[in-house]
Amino acid sequence: MSSTTTVTRPTEPSTIALPIEPLATDFAKIYIHIHPFLLLSLYIYRFDAIVGDPVSTLPTLLVGSVGLQLVYILTCLPPTTAGTKSNPPMLAKIGLKKKRTKQNEQGYGDKVIPAVLSLILTALLGVPLIYIFVVLFGGPLTTHFLHTFFCAAHIAFLAVLPLVYVFGVDSGRWRELAGLLIPLDDVVGGALGTVFGAWVGAVPIPLDWDREWQKWPVTIVTGAYGGYVMGKLLGGQILKGKVIEI
Amino acid sequence: MGNGVHKSEFKSIAAAFAKAKAEKEKEDAQALRGAAQDARASDKEWEVRFKATHGLIVAFFILILLFHILGLYLFTSGFLLTRLVLNNKSECPVPPIEPLGIFEPGSSDRGCWHPKSFQKAIIVIVDALRYDFTVPFKAQSAEDKPHHYHNSLPFLYETALQYPNNAFLLPFIADPPTTTLQRLKGLTTGTLPTFIDAGSNFAGTAIDEDNLVAQLRDASRRIVHLGDDTWHSLFPGYFDPNLTHAYDSFNVWDLHTVDNGVNEHLFPLLDKSNAGKWDVIFAHYLGVDHAGHRYGPDHPAMSAKLEQMDGVLKQVVDALDDETLLVIMGDHGMDSKGDHGGESYDEVQAALWMYSKKGIFGRTSSSYIEPPQSARERPVAQIDLVPTLSLLLGMPIPFNNLGAPIEEAFIGRAGNDYVNLAKVRRLTAAQIHRYQAEYALARKLDASSTALPLKLWETATEVWASVKKRGNPDKDLIKSAAIAYSKYQFETLSICRGLWARFDVSSMVCGIVVLTSALIMLGFYARGIDGDRVDVTPTFLVRGFSGMFVGATIGSVVGVSVSTLPLISTTIVATALGGNLGMISAFWSIRKRISSPTPTTLWGWVSTVFPLLLSIGFAANSFTIWEDEILLFFLSTFGALLAISSFRQKSLLDRSLGVYHSVLFIILTRIASLSRLCREEQMPYCKSTYYASANSSTSAGWQLLIPFGLALFLPGIIQTYYNRTKSLQGMAIPWLSFALRAFLLLSAVFWLLDAADDGDWLSIDNTVLKTIKISLSRIVLFATFGVGYIVYTRSPSFLNIETHTSPTANGTSTPSDPSQPVIASPARSRVSILGYSNVHGSRYFILITIWLVAVTMVQKPMGGGAIGILALQILALLEIIDHNKLTDTAVGPVVLGLLGSFHFFKTGHQATLASIQWESAFIPLRIIVYPWSPLLVVLNTFGAQILCAVAVPATVLWKQPPKKRGLLGNIAKAMATHVLFYATIALATTMWAGWLRRHLMLYRIFSPRFMVGAIVLAVVDVIAAFVAVGGVRWGFLSAAEVFGPEVGMSI
């Protein structure tokens, strides 16, 4: 146990993980606080429809959510530099410096390509991966394919999309994330919150309350949205910069 | 440590083992031991001390077992319902109330209390004859198709429809528990069963209450019994010894022996020449029940069986004379898998058909001539049979009866003889009234509970008085009298149902207190003592046992001298209290070494929170119903947490292997979760996959491949884990590569033959096949325990010596692999010990494989697959624990607890009585043999928990350095943690069952879960003490022979 309580990060010299700082624009400073509540409001607005017919409502809600998430990453987050340029995957720090000096000149055009790539990566890798996770944790294997698929899509676009945008394909960062070895910030907090919320969302399913909203996957998606907001609050504000110790 | 993958360093096995060993010992003497003579002496001293210490730790777990048994006994004695049995008997000359009119009571020839209708009766019990087996199938929707059990027994329905005066068919509702023994008690005494008898199905006891069979015997009627031998344990010596033929009732794989036996002896008795030899025949057929248990109701064997019964019943009717009453009934139904015991709709609904050639039956309405379509319409209670038969045969109604006479039997041909109906209802009600008065005397009842029935009784008496007053009362008035008496009977019955749910709360509280204190002490022992537990265990043991002894003495003295206290309970409470005080004093004596057992690390928290969440969840019926899915969720979560932890490891090897095994663990968990046996409450959200279909209890064809796959792959996979540390040495090679595979293969063949037997695929005689099957399973069980334990206890440690010349002869050697320490490096050759890095783990794992074979043998093919996956999960867990350095945490024992509970469900079980696979008792046996038959059922039911408990020491031993200090103490710690897991669950389920004792779902959900929790705790305690902790002895002794003393414990 002693060896796991005092954790030092893996010794790759290049990765000096710092919490991700949102862009310093005025819009970003405001929108980063509004964004989770906008998402949650949208979700609450559509909640009854989701309960009524998840398979047809979840995709339309997904369009809105992805839209908001794109606004969020484009306006508030520094894009990864790894993968899009030939730089080695160590640019968390350098990238930040660059952003601080250049961000005003940097047009949205430079961010659109990483954003689109993140969108594609999340859809092609994130969604199937989350789908597999949901099934591994007891989600239906042979039925409810669309239910589970849209559930996984919502979780992926909430949790994975911003991560891909800031981490890119930097495997070192991803591995650190898998070991929870990186400091909490808005993005990581939101992602962990989403996953934890979805986990908690499974709890009411077996209860015999006979409520319509207990059906698959409403509670999971609800938990994910709730967890996303909570995670952002905790990670982005209260516990920012903290590293989880095991 | 995980250095096993560096395989390239060993290219050749050079020296022969004997030579190398001699060489090694020489080296050992220099390098590891010091002077050889001193070493011998200290070896001997260490060995004696080790054996003593080890024995004390085993004894400590026995002490814990004692605490648990005391607590569970106390709780159970207060929780399982008790009804005061009155020994009063009804007497023929003493009717409960003055009869009406000219009838003179007291002669059993004319009828004791009421004119009798029949001199003789044949009562046929077709075990598990569900009501819907007897009525024609009517489709509710277009997709509704008849099942195999439909339309195969039309005779009863058709007769009732065509000859309503001769026959009637009604749903016949049982009071749960729906086990045959309980049912027979209800069907003969007319009173309600109590739960405590449910478990005594393996050892029935004689009925000493007043009952119909005893009344018949006392009236010198000659009673014959044929069939199910449960009757003889209930009514020993009641039956005519020459004509009676009983058959073993528990061999559920045998569909025909009992039925053919009954037929063989029944029909000669029906012959006119034998008519004078008997008065009442009880014939009990078991084929339908056994077909249900073996195949499930929706199987061709069931329709064949029902068709056979149809023919038999027709023959009985043909042979019947006019003076004989024929009753055909089921004693309970069966669920969709053909099992029974609980209180679901399908289990309680049986059929009742009464027939006589006299034609005295009637219906109050012509619409009642057609028997009800489902058991929900116009059902009668099974206890109603008792007053009905008693009065029809001219017997007094048994004293404790609570049932009502069945309307159809007394209403007369025209269906309007309300005078007769009112008379019999009045008699029955009066007997109930007399019984209630006696019961109230024997056991103080509060006035409020008896007020309503008393009022109803008075009302009925008043109505009757007004009937008597008028010389020629009209039909409506008599009808209202009949209804008034019926109301009284009904109300009393429902009050009794509530009343006998009477719990002894003080005893239950005592039990919970004992269990709680045992839990706290175990918690401190497991997680709250600093340093090696080996030093402190003797103190606990001595003080705990002496405390118990003193307590038992004081308790028995107090119990004898104070007459208001019950002796047994007082003694038990005092024993437990004394033991507690002893333990507390032991904790006090080592108080400096005690720390709070509350967790301080994340792993500590996780290992605490998840069992607690599970325990809290058992307070809700939904979480209890869905326990299997919750365990899947928890295990996946643990797997994910272990994967995260693995990602944090610094060494690439630890990281990659840790992540690999964590992911493997999660995937295996999910694969195992596909094996499901749903309980009724999980419907319709659950699909059973354990058997071929939801309505059968046989395996599908593809499932028969699973045991063969197991035999093919599992031994090889285990060997790869051994190979990683070069531990595949010595006896491990023949055991793992040959014996294990051979035993698993034999068990696979067993299940193939079993399926062939079920499906009649082979043209071999059934008895021959049965002999082959029994021999196969006996060989496997004897061999795995016999040969396995010999290998495990006698074999030296799985080590070998390798000498190899270094290709680079100069001094600069490559960094050596620490798992194969170099003993000596002369200039040209190096000698290393193969298997060094997992010397304890590889040895101990053999014990796990022994139990693996035994558990697999008694599981159905699907369950065998689940156990195979469990073995892989245990291996993955051991690797994860090693790579994440979690040996000292509670993770291993707690995850094993979750795994054991999870695979309980995956081996086709649920926390319900109906899911017990009784037939597993007959895998290696033909008949019930004590104690083996119950032990086999336990091995089948709790196989997963047993295997996981056996695996607990491996979490401490796997890949640990041979001379690591305090291993024995750590094993005690891990085992105590594991037992703590089950003790927490058992305490929680106990508390919830006690707290929710008035809950609607008590018998369906909370009570069975409590019983599972309690039995699992006791089983795991026994396995922990005798198999797991007891089993580490040989490993340490053999390791000490190689590595010298101080292996496992310091001197």
UniProtKB/TrEMBL annotation, chain A:
<dbReference type="InterPro" id="IPR009580">
    <property type="entry name" value="GPI_biosynthesis_protein_Pig-F"/>
</dbReference>
<keyword id="KW-0337">GPI-anchor biosynthesis</keyword>
<keyword id="KW-0256">Endoplasmic reticulum</keyword>
<keyword id="KW-1133">Transmembrane helix</keyword>
<feature type="transmembrane region" description="Helical">
    <location>
        <begin position="187"/>
        <end position="207"/>
    </location>
</feature>
<comment type="pathway">
    <text>Glycolipid biosynthesis; glycosylphosphatidylinositol-anchor biosynthesis.</text>
</comment>
<dbReference type="GO" id="GO:0005789">
    <property type="term" value="C:endoplasmic reticulum membrane"/>
</dbReference>
<dbReference type="GO" id="GO:0006506">
    <property type="term" value="P:GPI anchor biosynthetic process"/>
</dbReference>
<keyword id="KW-0472">Membrane</keyword>
<keyword id="KW-0812">Transmembrane</keyword>
<feature type="transmembrane region" description="Helical">
    <location>
        <begin position="145"/>
        <end position="167"/>
    </location>
</feature>
<feature type="transmembrane region" description="Helical">
    <location>
        <begin position="112"/>
        <end position="138"/>
    </location>
</feature>
<protein>
    <submittedName>
        <fullName>GPI-anchor biosynthesis protein-like protein</fullName>
    </submittedName>
</protein>
<dbReference type="Pfam" id="PF06699">
    <property type="entry name" value="PIG-F"/>
</dbReference>
From TrEMBL, chain B:
<protein>
    <recommendedName>
        <fullName>GPI ethanolamine phosphate transferase 3</fullName>
    </recommendedName>
</protein>
<dbReference type="InterPro" id="IPR002591">
    <property type="entry name" value="Phosphodiest/P_Trfase"/>
</dbReference>
<feature type="transmembrane region" description="Helical">
    <location>
        <begin position="1010"/>
        <end position="1029"/>
    </location>
</feature>
<dbReference type="InterPro" id="IPR017850">
    <property type="entry name" value="Alkaline_phosphatase_core_sf"/>
</dbReference>
<feature type="transmembrane region" description="Helical">
    <location>
        <begin position="630"/>
        <end position="647"/>
    </location>
</feature>
<dbReference type="InterPro" id="IPR039524">
    <property type="entry name" value="PIGO/GPI13"/>
</dbReference>
<feature type="transmembrane region" description="Helical">
    <location>
        <begin position="772"/>
        <end position="792"/>
    </location>
</feature>
<comment type="pathway">
    <text>Glycolipid biosynthesis; glycosylphosphatidylinositol-anchor biosynthesis.</text>
</comment>
<feature type="transmembrane region" description="Helical">
    <location>
        <begin position="841"/>
        <end position="858"/>
    </location>
</feature>
<keyword id="KW-0337">GPI-anchor biosynthesis</keyword>
<dbReference type="GO" id="GO:0006506">
    <property type="term" value="P:GPI anchor biosynthetic process"/>
</dbReference>
<feature type="transmembrane region" description="Helical">
    <location>
        <begin position="700"/>
        <end position="721"/>
    </location>
</feature>
<dbReference type="InterPro" id="IPR037675">
    <property type="entry name" value="PIG-O_N"/>
</dbReference>
<feature type="transmembrane region" description="Helical">
    <location>
        <begin position="56"/>
        <end position="81"/>
    </location>
</feature>
<feature type="transmembrane region" description="Helical">
    <location>
        <begin position="979"/>
        <end position="998"/>
    </location>
</feature>
<feature type="transmembrane region" description="Helical">
    <location>
        <begin position="935"/>
        <end position="958"/>
    </location>
</feature>
<keyword id="KW-0812">Transmembrane</keyword>
<dbReference type="GO" id="GO:0051377">
    <property type="term" value="F:mannose-ethanolamine phosphotransferase activity"/>
</dbReference>
<feature type="transmembrane region" description="Helical">
    <location>
        <begin position="505"/>
        <end position="528"/>
    </location>
</feature>
<dbReference type="Pfam" id="PF01663">
    <property type="entry name" value="Phosphodiest"/>
</dbReference>
<feature type="transmembrane region" description="Helical">
    <location>
        <begin position="540"/>
        <end position="562"/>
    </location>
</feature>
<feature type="transmembrane region" description="Helical">
    <location>
        <begin position="568"/>
        <end position="590"/>
    </location>
</feature>
